[in-house]
Amino acid sequence: AQSVTQLGSHVSVSEGALVLLRCNYSSSVPPYLFWYVQYPNQGLQLLLKYTSAATLVKGINGFEAEFKKSETSFHLTKPSAHMSDAAEYFCAVSNSGGYQKVTFGIGTKLQVIP
Amino acid sequence: DAGVIQSPRHEVTEMGQEVTLRCKPISGHDYLFWYRQTMMRGLELLIYFNNNVPIDDSGMPEDRFSAKMPNASFSTLKIQPSEPRDSAVYFCASRPTPPGLHGYTFGSGTRLTVV
To answer: Does B104 contact A49 at a Cβ distance shorter than 8 Å?
Structure first.
């Protein structure tokens, strides 16, 4: 079985501050990990994905995530928050190279304070 | 490309009525997924198809839910009869093989309210 746990359903940061969204995974096999973003009234968009190549993965909009096997973590970071980053972020895991079954976390709503 | 197209965007129906949600995947994508999103349970995979064939429907909550994919460009999710607890946002997503750079492409969702 595979699962992800996102710590903190709501995170608030000031504009220009570091963004850190936490995700821990559980998987019986080497996982494929993803971060998706959802803006209001829209579907999810892929930010980045880890597929067992480099452990530090760079995504769109300045986000990156680091795969740490020892900590079973895949936290999402961005050095400087922008107002447009306000959205809901989902961590997800698949144990299949074809990503047929992707399990999503409950989501973290990011608020950016001016 | 117009992306994954879902209709309707919003649906309000009375308990006991039949509801049909529609999805047009991206042309050339051979996988199609139906997800349900609620505050309590987050995103749940209901069913997915490969080349129009249902592969795994273990997430379908009960027999009131059914999904079809009669051809590569159209899928439906039907709820009959609908109940208030079915109120949620239903997303359709598609992806090609191999998955490519973008993973799944999600539609904008159908917000279903059953009163």
So the answer is: no
